[in-house]
Design goal:
The protein is an alpha/beta fold. Helices cover about 40% and strands about 15% of the residues.
Length: about 400
């Protein structure tokens, strides 16, 4: 692309000089900046191609209404809505090829909300002092491929540090626009979403080649509280044709609000859309907590395992496995497509095997028995006398999915 157009986003009342600097650097490197002002209160510090009034109107408001919204947070939400609509429309018309936002907390969140509406593969870069330390990155990245750069210092003025950071951010977004991938707008008719964690990697790896041999393109999602919902976003967009839940840790985490917990939508989307799906019980045995030295005392009395320096896995009890079984059954009950639960009776993770640190066969069987009792007869529970990571179990899961997908295609 000879001259990529970069939507250059910022609150020009507080970041005018910085956005103007980014605009000039984009032009010096052969691109074109389309500056969008998302400020609300003060006077713009540089000229905008799309002024703040237009952003507000895209949200169905006049700027005066935003200024009198009652709180800073309410104003941010209106400008998020307006920018999201503007940016997606611009991209849809082919008028922008990437997005760059320089902002503090609120400015970066406004830019992030719009970037998250763009397809995967569209260059998206946010520079912010809020991208640092223990802060949560979910509001910036969402479930998209947003690149977040720490500005190191606050964004006020051009100096040797800010210049270095801004120059790199501009080079990154232009480089991606010129030399990066095409945006992902379709995945093909034979794409299957597969959830996985490190604790189920060997089993998933065994399934992968059989799926490919049968003409399926597996796309693996890290089931960490973001991966599963991202997969379901693609189901909603009709980009996936089937699902293998090799790891249901996000549901297990929801029992105690663990690090990987998700909302009540999880495990319902494929069912609603009638996709063929195989549900294993991979990673149903634990929920995620933070570093071991921060583990609350109430969980220290249970079986637990230091997974890495920032993650501790805590065993679910028998009663909690019953609760998990009821949750899964409730979310799958209305499945419109062929669905089967494949239950490994010899353990749900690398550490939930006989002699392993999270082994609890009675609790594991309670989950299986609950599913057998609670699921409708249209959703069978197939017991397989293997651990989840045995290669033969992975191959069995792949074969069952291929069979289900074939039945769905033939209408049987």
């Amino acid at each position: 692309m000879s001259q990529p157009v970069i939507a250059t986003i910022g609150t020009l009342d507080t970041k005018g000089a910085e956005i103007d600097y980014a605009r000039k650097r984009i032009q010096e490197l052969g691109g074109r900046a389309l500056v969008i002002d998302t400020g609300v209160l003060g006077e713009p510090g540089c000229e905008a191609d799309i002024p703040r009034e237009e952003v507000a109107r895209a949200a169905g408001r006049e700027l005066a209404e935003v200024q009198n919204a009652g709180s800073r947070g309410a104003a941010v939400e209106i400008m998020q809505e307006g920018l999201r609509k503007l940016l997606t429309d611009l991209y849809g018309r082919g008028e922008v090829h990437g997005a760059l936002c320089l902002g503090g907390a609120e400015g970066a969140l406004i830019g992030a909300a719009a970037m998250q509406a763009l397809p995967i593969g569209v260059p998206k870069v946010i520079v912010s002092p809020s991208a640092s330390g223990p802060r949560a990155f979910g509001p910036f990245m969402g479930r998209r491929d947003v690149m977040v750069m720490h500005s190191v210092i606050d964004i006020l003025g051009i100096n040797s540090i800010s210049q270095a950071v801004f120059d790199n951010a501009v080079a990154a977004v232009l480089g991606m626009a010129r030399e990066g991938s095409e945006p992902v707008v379709a995945l093909g008719g034979q794409t299957v979403g597969v959830t996985m964690l490190g604790q189920t990697t060997p089993g998933t790896m065994a399934a992968y080649p059989l799926l490919e041999e049968a003409g399926w393109a597996p796309v693996i999602f890290h089931a960490n509280g973001v991966g599963g919902p991202a997969m379901e976003d693609l189901i909603e967009a009709e980009s996936l044709r089937g699902v293998i839940e090799f790891s249901i840790s996000e549901l297990a985490n929801s029992i105690h609000g663990g690090v990987h917990a998700t909302d009540e939508r999880r495990l319902t989307v494929a069912a609603k859309h009638g996709l063929p799906q195989v549900i294993t019980l991979g990673c149903a045995d634990f929920f995620n907590q933070g570093p071991l030295d921060t583990l609350p005392e109430r969980w220290r009395q249970r079986q637990h395992y230091k997974h890495n320096p920032v993650a501790t896995l805590v065993r679910l009890s028998r009663d909690e496995m019953v609760e998990l079984g009821r949750m899964i059954a409730g979310r799958l009950a209305g499945a419109k497509g062929p669905t089967v639960v494949v239950a490994p009776t010899r353990g749900y993770s690398l550490i939930d095997v006989e002699g392993g640190p999270l082994w609890d066969h009675e609790a594991d069987m309670a989950l299986i028995e609950t599913l057998e009792a609670e699921l409708p007869s249209t959703i069978p529970v197939e017991r397989v006398d293997l651990p989840v990571n045995d290669p033969e179990f992975g191959r069995y899961v792949a074969r069952r999915f291929i069979e289900l997908a074939g039945d769905a295609a033939s209408g049987s």
